């Protein structure tokens, strides 16, 4: 099985695939009498005209490392953000697209409390909490129509830390 | 100072003011080869035509109980959801409206990992993490125009557990 090494998750490294949702610098502004910093509009949410943003909750079972990546999926009609409610780190596998085929895979692991937003139509592995089960708020598209494409990997990848 | 007692946070009790975002029953469907339950579209997101949903991050200082509630605010152009990334419970004070004046105050305290969505134009206290500072993903309205009304309480309330 081919190996895929986990690399450091930075906003720059992840930018082609989506957005890192975390405190990454000073706040855009202080609110609530200076007791709270607002880091404004951190994710490129993107939905088709028939869709809208919604908040759902994924209650996901634990996975372990090394992790066998045997399938990726994408959502042509909308972006998808994952926001951990239990502080459980999760694996984020993504890939570029070549005429409908995922290529040049990358793997990242969030730190506790970090969220990510995956761009509309970007190939990604399914939610994979590492080491413990976890609840995740998910901001994605609510609406009619087919918003899921799956691609089973002919040769699975072994994702390692 | 008048006292306001914290009451149990249930979806029913909070419904007039917003939505409780948590695992509250069986999932709407199982996804990811049965390894994840999806609890679908849990929040009444509501934005005016010029606004859209965005994900921001609030980095808020700790508060303590009892808590002095001396101001509430509301957002006429959009709902506002708070999703804890560090598992820090937070105080949720809300009130009904009587011709622009907040009345009949209520106070709730989330459990670790619970989020809430506050309905558009509903009076509420500012984000108040209890016992520790915390980061919260906030799904609220991004757009032009005035979306904040504040109401300083003539007589503050002492919120107690």
Largest interface, by Cβ-Cβ below 8 angstroms: which chains and how many residues each?
A-B, 46 and 46 residues
For the record, what CATH class of chain A applies?
Mainly Beta
Discrete helix count of chain A: 1
Shape summary of chain A: globular
Helix content of chain A: under 10%
Strand content of chain A: over 45%
Could you say what the CATH topology of chain A is called?
Jelly Rolls
Number of domains of chain A: 1
| Low-pLDDT ranges of chain A | none
Order of helices and strands of chain A: EHEEEEEEEEEEEEE
Straight-line N-to-C gap of chain A: 16 Å
Which class best fits the helix and strand makeup of chain A? Answer: mainly beta
CATH-scheme architecture of chain A: Sandwich
Largest sheet properties of chain A: 7 strands, mixed
What's the total count of β strands of chain A?
Answer: 14
Oligomeric nature of the chains = homodimer
- Roughly how many Å is the radius of gyration of chain A? 16 Å
- In CATH terms, the superfamily of chain A is Ureidoglycolate hydrolase
**Global mean pLDDT of chain A:** 98
Function (chains A, B): Catalyzes the catabolism of the allantoin degradation intermediate (S)-ureidoglycolate, generating urea and glyoxylate. Involved in the utilization of allantoin as nitrogen source.
Catalytic activity (chains A, B): (S)-ureidoglycolate = urea + glyoxylate
Keywords (chains A, B): Lyase, Purine metabolism
InterPro entries (chains A, B): RmlC_Cupin_sf, UAH_cupin, Ureidogly_lyase, Ureidogly_lyase_bac, Ureidoglycolate_lyase_dom_sf
């Amino acid at each position: 099985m081919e190996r895929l090494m986990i690399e450091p998750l930075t906003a720059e490294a992840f930018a082609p695939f989506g957005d890192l949702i975390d405190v990454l610098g000073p706040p855009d502004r202080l609110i609530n009498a200076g007791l709270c910093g607002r880091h404004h509009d951190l994710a490129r949410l993107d939905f088709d005209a028939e869709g809208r943003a919604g908040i759902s909750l994924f209650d996901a079972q634990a996975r372990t490392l090394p992790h066998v990546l045997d399938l990726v999926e994408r959502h042509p009609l909308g972006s998808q953000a994952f926001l951990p409610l239990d502080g459980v780190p999760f694996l984020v596998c993504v890939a570029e697209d070549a005429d409908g085929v995922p290529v040049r895979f990358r793997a990242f692991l969030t730190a506790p409390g970090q969220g990510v937003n995956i761009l509309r139509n970007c190939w990604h592995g399914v939610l994979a909490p590492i080491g413990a089960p976890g609840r995740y708020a998910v901001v994605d598209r609510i609406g009619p129509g087919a918003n899921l494409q799956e691609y089973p990997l002919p040769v699975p990848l072994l994702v390692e830390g």
